[in-house]
Amino acid sequence: MTQIDQAVTVREGEALDVAVVDRFMKNTIPGLTGEPRIQQYPGGASNLTYQVAYPDCTFVLRRPPFGKIAKSAHDMLREARVMAALKPVYPYVPAIIATCDDHRVLGCDFYVMEQLNGIILRQDFPKGLELGEQDTRKLCLNVIDKLVDLHQVDARAAGLDHLGKGAGYVERQIGGWSDRFRKARTADVGDFEAVMSWLADKMPDDVAQCVIHNDFRFDNVVLNPDNPFEVIGVLDWEMATIGDPLMDLGNSLAYWVQADDEGLFQMLRRQPTHRPGMLTRAQVADYYLEKSGLKVDRFDYYEIYGLFRLAAIIQQIYYRFYHGQTKDKRFAAFGHAAQYLEKRCLALIEASDL
To answer: Helices in 44-168 by DSSP H: which ranges?
Structure first.
């Protein structure tokens, strides 16, 4: 039997007060009885995700990371509002159960959502999920289709058009991520100035404005355990907004490590995109463009942007580890990862004819 994604023991320094969580849950959700068991989901390096299991029902609690965080980052209540608005028009969003802005509870904003019992593809296929090349391709296409579907959502009808700031999304992203990287840079990591300069010089106009996820990848997708080709959920809406869909695709492809990539990039792989049957990055881009009807001469810019943005995210997390604001040992090598991504960006820039 294919294993459903499981919560595990809470990481050191990230425990929640069980009595406090229990009191909030019972005051908010009618009919809860018994004592909860709190465990943590192992994926993710940003917001923290916990399973709160009662004898008769189970929920998921999301809160920001511990330690100093950027003022505009980890807005849990915004994420919950976006999810609640999207749910009626994009059914893969988990239902929001409760939100909390009272910092006397957990010291931060947080929300509680329904738990989706299913398979999440992390670095490799879970035990019991054996797919041949054709079935793997079918799964791959079904997942990409959900990104295409999201980009077709009517933002105004969903009440999400207020998230947009109008034209200039690409320009805002390049400026914003450049600023965030510079502020998070540590002495042991390169400066990315050549990459940021190229992105600023080669900047295209927005190709469209639509609802985008900004972190769409396999380990944010939940599959039906009885039919692993069926997507039943899309998670982690922290960075969802109105923006350019090709920038969204570029973000996704930054995580898309394929079978023929060099060893250092393979070390960053966190989803099974290397398996026989998975599309290559170029094939993903071609398939997406065909399905969406969008047109672009070259995808180089969006691929390089996605890698730079990933480096900036990694560097923001590494900054917290570097300065002792988190003890999570997973982040110890993030500085090396950022260094590698700078070299990869520079190599792609050299090969580009933009």
So the answer is: 76-86, 103-106, 133-151
